[in-house]
Known about the structure:
This protein is α+β, with helices and mostly antiparallel strands and 197 residues long. The chain has one domain. It is 28% helix and 30% strand. The protein has a 5-stranded antiparallel beta sheet with strand order 1-2-3-4-5. β2 (18-29) and β3 (35-46) form a beta hairpin. The radius of gyration is 17 Å and the shape is globular. Residues 1-6 and 191-197 have low confidence and may be disordered.
Amino acid sequence: MTLIADGSAHLLSLDKRTLYAEDEGWRCELEDGSKVDLGIVFEAVDLSRTLGFEEEYPFVVEAAIVPRPEALDDEVVLEVSEEENPSRSALIFDIYRHYGGVPVNIDALQPARASCGASAFVTDQVVRPEKTASGQTIEVRHFRTVEDALTFTREFYVFISPIVFEFLDYLLDQPLGQGTGWDMIRRLAGGGGLVAK
């Protein structure tokens, strides 16, 4: 069962390149009937570091679904936390850095060229086609600076994020390196042998 967000997402800054959004309605229900509240981490990634050459628009925004801190298994918290009593934002960041999350192609929610140009007024960006591992061509927004990427995230991606939870079952069914998104959420929320990324 998937519940749709009501549009009142809360936003936390995790570091200079990473934001986290959550909403009371963002949750999934596991097969045992337990409900797991969820959030989305947005990270501005500098592709020039991975590509090895200068790029005028080197930043893209990657998004991943993670359980909210209150839903995390105690053993997972102990494993990833570098502090005895971590703050909420530090715990979210530690979980994301250690395990990643269930990846979401946030640009697929409203393809860049289908946004009627409204999103172009938010920040400086270009849209480029990219091939996925499966060979599919997708459109991806690229930003000039990390500030542009985060501004766009605050003003646009967070605003359209509730759409993710309309097809959450499909996203969680997708295979990841070890199991599916369901397996990742279940292990983080209920313990049980998850291997770090």
